[in-house]
Amino acid sequence: MSAPEKLNIESAQIPVIVIVGPTASGKTALSLKLAEKLPVEIVACDSRTIYRRMDIGTAKPSAKEQLLVRHHLLDVADVDQVYTAANYKEEATKAIDDIRARGKYPIVCGGTGLYARALLEGFSIPAVAPNIELRNQLNALAEEQGNNFLFEKLQALDTVTAQRVNPNDRFRVVRAIEVSLALGKPFSEAATKNAPPYPTIWIGMGVKERQYIKGLIEHRFDEQVNAGLMDEVRGLLADYGQTRALLNAVPYKEAIAYLAGEISIEQARELSLIHNYQLARRQLMWFRTNERINWFMVDTESRENIFSDVLNLIFKFHQSI
Question: Which of 267, 272, 238 is nearest to 253 (CA)?
Fold first, then answer.
């Protein structure tokens, strides 16, 4: 049984197919496989692939893969620009509406939970203009007192958001403090939840044994180094310096430390593996809270079976309308 290759339904009823899960779990591969059978376009849902020239270290779909199927929300910002979840929601919504209006399936594919939530779960983020003076003050505090000192300030302002943010992700900690102070109430209270804007089919790429993800992450890092990761980082540093986008992204921050002579290549590799595995754990925990996700275990199920089962889910959606 397979899903219909031509849509005979109103554009308002065309589902958004969402493929989420931890880093290196095979999300991009599944989206490209679906493109062989269905009229789709892919909307990236990744807070790193939005940046131009961050290609190898983000495992961005290759130029050849992007020729096979149209991709949206890749390469939309330079690495010295601030790009927020609100920016992503606005641009991705436009892309999805356009894709559905042309009778195609949008596939939202990626591992950034905040982006997926803002875009597809009716999560409304308040628009607050950047306060550069406050940001400079908060960053100076973090430099003097450490990231944990700043994180404790966020905990005092908004315990809910603090539970969702990595204490060392200084940009997001600063932004949460900035928004809370500007609104006069916790950011988590200002963010509202509305009805989901689209019919969606949620696909989760999970694992039964997390050691499997460790192996995938290790293999990916070695491939990235062999593909020219260090040259990519050298070029970005030469043109932009050590921007927030680079310093907050694995394996870029580790590559920067290696190129500065602060650590060895072996240490850069080990730190990259540790930090990417921590990222994978956070992604799994984030998406596990979404009860609508249909989970597939990539370490115990064959990729062909997952592909077939996803097609059947799409077929069943069409039968239900």
Answer: 272
- Residue 5 located in a structural domain: no
Structure tokens at 303: 């990729």
pTM for the complete prediction? Answer: 0.84
Residue 289's contacts (CB-CB under 8 Å, 6 or more residues apart) are none
Decide which of 169, 190, 211 is a domain's last residue: 190
d(CA 311, CA 293): 15
Parallel, antiparallel or unpaired: strands 200-206 and 16-20: parallel
What CATH number corresponds to the domain at position 163?
1.10.20.140
Residue 205, φ and ψ in degrees, nearest 5: -100, 100
Q: What is the CA radius of gyration of the chain?
A: 20
> Which residues does residue 219 pair with via DSSP β-bridges, in sequence order?
none
The domain in which residue 146 lies consists of 132-190
For residue 250, what is the domain's CATH number? 3.40.50.300
289 with 278, same domain: the answer is yes
Answer yes or no: do 218 and 95 share one domain: yes
Q: pLDDT tens for the chain, 321 residues: list them.
A: 444 545 556 777 899 999 999 999 999 999 999 999 999 999 999 999 999 999 999 999 999 999 999 999 999 999 999 898 889 999 999 999 999 999 999 999 999 988 998 899 887 767 777 788 898 899 899 889 998 999 999 999 999 888 878 787 787 788 889 989 988 888 777 777 778 899 999 999 999 998 999 999 999 999 999 999 999 999 999 999 999 899 989 999 999 999 999 999 999 999 999 999 998 988 888 888 889 999 999 999 999 999 999 999 999 998 887
166 and 307 together in one domain: no
The total number of structural domains in the chain stands at: 2
